[in-house]
Structure formats: C-alpha cells, structure tokens
Amino acid sequence: GDSVTQMEGPVTLSEEAFLTINCTYTATGYPSLFWYVQYPGEGLQLLLKATKADDKGSNKGFEATYRKETTSFHLEKGSVQVSDSAVYFCALRNSNSGYALNFGKGTSLLVTP
Amino acid sequence: DAGVIQSPRHEVTEMGQEVTLRCKPISGHNSLFWYRQTMMRGLELLIYFNNNVPIDDSGMPEDRFSAKMPNASFSTLKIQPSEPRDSAVYFCASSSTQETQYFGPGTRLLVL
C-alpha cells in the first residue's frame, strides 16, 4: 500500500540556518503530495502542495519539488525563524485509494535564537 | 470563514464511559475526515464521509468506535465504552476539492 517516510526528528537549528526535511513516498499511480505544519496545541495547516511530477509547491519561504524519479518531496527553507518551530508532516493523496491523506510520522523542528 | 469547528476541545473521562466528539465542517465542503493522533502511531485516518455517506471506515479500531454524519454540517465520533488506550488527539478535517483538507483544532481526549 501507499506510504510516506520522513526523516526522524527532532531537528534543532539556529535562526537563519538552512532547513531540509526529507520525505520519500511509495505509491501506485500519480499521487498528490502535501506538506502540513502543526504548531504547538493547534491543528494541522496546509503549508504547500504539488499535484504532478516536477511541480514545485511554495509558501512562506518554504519550497518542495515533486520528484517522481526519486519518489521524493523534500521540504526546504533558506533561512528559518524561531516562529517556524513546529511539527511538519509530509502526506500523499492517491486517487487510486480514495480521498484520504496518508501521513508520515512528522518531523519536529526547533529553531533557537 | 469559521473553519472546521470541533467540540469539546478537551475531554477527560473515566474508563467505561461513553465519549462523543463533534465536528462542524466548513460550509460547502462535501468530504469529512476523522483522524487520530498519538505519539506511537502518528496520524491515522479513522473514517471519511463523502456527501454524508461513509466511504472508508477501515481505520476504525474496533466496534467501540462509531461515526455518523446525519447532515452536511455535522458529524460525531463516538467511543463506547472508552478505554485508556483511546487517549489521543482526535482531528476532524473537511474538503471540497478532494485535494486540500482543512483541519479543526482537535479534541484532546484523556481516558483515566
């Protein structure tokens, strides 16, 4: 079945450092890929998405490119801020298996001043 | 837009009691999802509805869990009887485009 694998956390970075959170997936067909962010005590918010190969999703300085050849959707940001501290979830939706999202385990990010 | 509304935000109950979680999706959305989040298992889909009809309930852990969606603006997730291992954060999400799901703030359930 479909699955999403994220790098283990927690990730601790200093403010203005470069961020990469790795995400790879296994799926049949052509899934859509998502990054969600969860701030402490809150629900999940969509951060960005890509619906086909080579698409790049971007939002709030974060980017991720849908790489079908490597089945990856790595999240990057050039300069993180303390306010980016949160848990980040990679997810896929595969029309072959309905409309539900299949989430990775989440990666906790802590940015220190 | 009020977003997805869940109630209660926090629930503490004793083992064996019935628990009912409530969700109001975003107006106009035709898909509704219930997820459970725990440290051990991460985010798991429990059930989802499309146009008020349950489409996939394979994630519902056992018969103690049941979910209903009597109309387009309301859904419930019920646990009867509750057990300590049901302690988790339960999220409701809704969607109209079958792509982007919008999540509620969650209900934090603690079963003693």
How would you describe what is shown here?
The complex is a heterodimer of chains A (113) and B (112). Chain A has 113 residues and is mainly beta. In chain A, 0% of the residues lie in helices and 50% in strands. Chain A is built from no helices and 12 strands. Chain A has strands spanning 3-6, 11-14, 19-21, 23-26, 32-38, 44-50, 56-59, 62-65, 75-77, 86-93, 102-103, 107-112. In chain A, the strands form 3 sheets. In chain A, strands 2, 5, 6, 10, 11 and 12 form a 6-stranded mixed β-sheet that branches. Chain A has a 4-stranded antiparallel β-sheet with strand order 3-9-8-7, with no helix packed on it. In chain A, β10 (86-93) and β11 form a beta hairpin. The radius of gyration of chain A is 14 Å and the shape is globular. Chain A starts with a strand and ends with a strand. The model of chain A has no long low-confidence stretch (mean pLDDT 93). Chain B is mainly beta. Helices cover 0% and strands 55% of the residues of chain B. Chain B contains no helices and 11 strands. In chain B, strands 2, 4, 5, 6, 9, 10 and 11 form a 7-stranded mixed β-sheet that branches. A 4-stranded antiparallel β-sheet of chain B has the order 1-3-8-7, with no helix packed on it. In chain B, a hairpin with a 2-residue loop joins β5 (42-50) and β6 (53-56). Chain B is globular. Chain B starts with a strand and ends with a strand. The mean pLDDT of chain B is 93.
Overall pLDDT of chain B: 93
Largest sheet of chain B: 7 strands, mixed
Provide the structure class of chain B: mainly beta
Cα end-to-end separation of chain B: 36 Å
How much helix is in the residues of chain A? under 10%
Strand elements of chain B, count: 11
Q: What is the gyration radius of chain B calculated from CA atoms?
A: 13 Å
Report the uncertain regions of chain A. none
- Count of DSSP E strands of chain A? 12
Q: Rg of chain A from C-alpha positions?
A: 14 Å
Structural class of chain A: mainly beta
Number of helices of chain B: 0
Binned, the helix content of chain B reads under 10%
Strand content of chain B: over 45%
What is the approximate shape of chain A?
A: globular
Task: Please state the overall shape of chain B, judged from the principal axes of the Cα atoms.
Answer: globular
Beginning-to-end CA distance, first to last residue of chain A:
41 Å
> How would a textbook summarize the main sheet of chain A?
6 strands, mixed
Strand fraction of chain A equals: over 45%
Mean pLDDT of chain A: 93
